[in-house]
Amino acid sequence: MTSLMNWLPIMLLGVPLAGAVALIVPSRPDGAAGGRSLHVHGLAVSGITFALSVVLAVAFDYGDAARVQFETDMAWIPGLDLRFHLGVDGISLPLVVLTALLTFLCFVYLSWGKADGPGQLLRPAPAGTRPRALVFTLLVLEVGMIGTFLALDLLLFFVFFEIVLIPMYFVIAIWGGRARRTAAIKFILYTLLGSVVLLLGLLLIWAQTGTLDVIALARAQGTGMSRSVQIIAFVAVGIGLAVKTPMWPLHTWLPDAHTEAPTVGSVLLAGVLLKMGTYGFARIAIPVLPDGAAAVAPWLGAFAVVGIIYGALACLAQRDLKRMIAYSSIGHMGFVLLGFATLTPVGVNAALFGNIAHGLITGLLFFVAGAVKERYGTADMPALGGGMLSRLPHLGSLLTFACIASLGLPGLAGFWGEMLALLGAFEPAPGLSRPLFLTFMAVGGIGAVLTAAYFLVMLSRVTHGRPVDTVHVPALAGSGPAEEAVAADYGTLPLTGTSGAGAGGSADEDDSGRRDGQPGPRAAGDAAGFRDVMRHELVAWTPLVGLILLFGLWPKALLLVTDPVVRTLVGAP
């Protein structure tokens, strides 16, 4: 039974990989039947992968969470002594389950809606939304994301770390908004340049220690590397990871990528890809290079708190809902980095808890923001007209819940990561300047207040007040060339009526506001164009709401998993 369980990590990679390979096999062109088969294929493959992650979580020995479990270690490239080394411990397990869950929920969101509904990227269309390619890309992306959290060899970690870049590039560049190509190029350039620096740091570690085994390196705690070498390696590795996190000032690719990405792209980018950078600090940078971490920690904390304040102030200046959520991620990941900078069990646990909380909350935020954009045809907050709670009460309530969770209300998951990060800064590790970190704590506290401010300002603009009716083109988060053409035809107009030509329509439109089978303008007061939360959306979002409540009310459920590993990594009793 034990040997069978050791195959679970390989199966977690093999199932989505096999699902992606199956789509390469030539088949008949996508039609109605082909679209349905793609729905089933994506749901089945991602569902099986999620089920395997649940089995992994159930079979995990929580009494020995610091030990690597379900380990697979075999020769990969014998000539270079590279090994295919996979395993799970208390740090990686929550992230593996989170990745599988969010990917499955993305397929639920894509597959269970109306095939011709707004934002439905898996619908067959004459202009070619390439649904088969989208399913293939998301499954390859899942392989890279899960592999990053399972890898226990430095080079294998780097390979999986890089695999995710190409599929995410195509998700943004093909299924994104109008400026998708610019955003995708910016994303790939930043992350590839960061990866080059990361690779140099990993090779320096290999050259100094003679091994790439993450477990052996963590146990050695820098043995074989001088302090100066550790500092150089930590800076190189840290820069590579900070680009993906992203840390201020290496963040500028993120707002454009989120704004232009389709809904599922934004969910996976915020919910999982950003966590790959912070996971690297916990798995590699801090335990493998302890002297380098101690030397650079004050700088890491300084960049973290600057990011917290910068992200909050940038959010206050935003008009676009998705862009505001993107900037909020910079602030939230600043709290995660501040937790790591303390080098204490409290701070590192806060960072790991904040990772999971941010993945759940921001994933929900981007799901809801995508739904808002699909209904209104815009994410511009002044153009939304306000009054969402009266017009779309369930959607407005979910948006309010996600925002309140993100600003750190006690009792919801977002509270614990920020509070514990600030507590860790109150008493940093020995050797770090306590007055400096008390300053970081104070600045971080101001950032928490500003976080509440920008979310409450946004809610007052979008969900409260009297609805102002406007007509918008559904320039969807997942719009492609066909939708762009429709947007160019219609633009955004003030409402002069509630339906038909009086609302800016034309004689050749049907009753649903569509022309030639493509989405057309919809009146804000038109019930058909403004459906509240639909069944497939509720199915996709309810697990996230439940987990946000669970970890908010019972944080011990997550902290008991991460704490034994954290204490081992930072050398605490």
Jot down its keywords:
single chain; 573 residues; mainly alpha; two-stranded antiparallel ribbon; 23 helices; 5 strands; 68% helix; 4% strand
Secondary structure tally: strands: 5
- Strands of the biggest beta sheet: in what spatial order? 4-3-5
**Mean residue pLDDT:** 83
User: How many helices does DSSP assign?
Assistant: 23
What's the overall geometry? globular
Determine Rg (CA atoms, Å).
23 Å
Strand content: under 5%
What structural category arises from helix and sheet content?
A: mainly alpha
Task: Tell me the distance between the termini.
Answer: 33 Å
Helix content: 55-70%
Instruction: Give the uncertain stretches in residue-range form.
Output: 115-119, 124-128, 471-528
SSE arrangement, N to C = HHHEEHHHHHHHHHHHHHHHHHEHEEHH
Major β-sheet annotation: 3 strands, antiparallel
Structure in words:
It is a single chain. The chain is mainly alpha-helical and 573 residues long. The protein contains 23 helices and 5 strands. Helices cover 68% and strands 4% of the residues. The strands form 2 sheets. The protein has a 3-stranded antiparallel sheet, with no helix packed on it. Helix 4 (92-111) runs antiparallel to helix 12 and helix 4 (92-111) runs antiparallel to helix 22.
